[in-house]
């Protein structure tokens, strides 16, 4: 991963990337991802169609992982409502499902309109220390 937010919990590190397009990505376990998404939707005061679809992918991880693997896809793009896109209320841009032995993880890539402050605050509420780092070209 390149650039982003560096997150530390009791010595454990997680990286949340902020790319040049202002998309923010974080790798989490499935349980952490559900907690983070729940906190973010509470902060924002709404749930979009893409968020509901993301919950469905998390809860049916194995089926979606196998589907993505068979189609040779690295990322799953949750369906988004046209109304959500026009209003700017899309939360999740894409997902990457990862299996490392028995450990199942997900990389959540947030839409560029989700403010960094919202993500940082949600991570802090989950007990993380957050350091912001950005991708640089040169």
Offer a concise description of the structure.
Helices cover 38% and strands 28% of the residues.
Adjacency order of strands in the biggest sheet: 4-5-3-2-1-6
Radius of gyration: 14 Å
Tell me about the largest β-sheet: 6 strands, antiparallel
Output mean pLDDT: 87
Strand content: 25-35%
- Low-confidence runs of at least 5 consecutive residues: 1-9
- What's the helical proportion of residues? 25-40%
Structure summary, number of beta strands:
6
The separation of the N and C termini measures: 16 Å
Note the total helix count: 5
Structural class category: alpha+beta
- How many separate structural domains? 1
Shape: globular
* Succession of helices and strands: EEEHHHHEEHE
Task: Describe the protein in words.
With 138 residues, this protein is an alpha+beta fold. It has one domain (5-132). 38% of the residues lie in helices and 28% in strands. The chain has helices spanning 30-44, 49-59, 61-70, 82-87, 116-125; strands at residues 5-9, 12-18, 24-29, 92-100, 103-110, 129-132. The chain has a 6-stranded antiparallel β-sheet. β4 (92-100) and β5 form a beta hairpin. α1 (30-44) packs antiparallel against α2 and α1 (30-44) crosses α5. The protein is globular, with a radius of gyration of 14 Å. Residues 1-9 have low confidence and may be disordered.
Features of this protein?
6 strands, disordered N terminus, 28% strand, six-stranded antiparallel β-sheet, single chain, 38% helix, globular, 138 residues, alpha+beta
């Amino acid at each position: 991963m390149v650039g982003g937010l560096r997150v530390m919990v009791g010595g454990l590190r997680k990286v949340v990337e902020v790319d040049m397009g202002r998309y923010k990505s974080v790798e989490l376990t499935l349980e952490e991802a559900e907690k983070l998404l729940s906190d973010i939707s509470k902060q924002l005061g709404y749930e979009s169609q893409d968020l509901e679809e993301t919950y469905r992918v998390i809860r049916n991880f194995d089926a979606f992982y196998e589907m993505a693997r068979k189609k040779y896809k690295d990322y799953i793009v949750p369906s988004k409502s046209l109304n959500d896109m026009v209003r700017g209320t899309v939360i999740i841009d894409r997902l990457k499902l990862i299996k490392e032995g028995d450990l199942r993880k997900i990389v959540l890539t947030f839409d560029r309109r989700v403010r960094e402050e919202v993500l940082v605050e949600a991570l802090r509420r989950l007990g993380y220390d957050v350091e912001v780092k950005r991708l640089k070209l040169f």
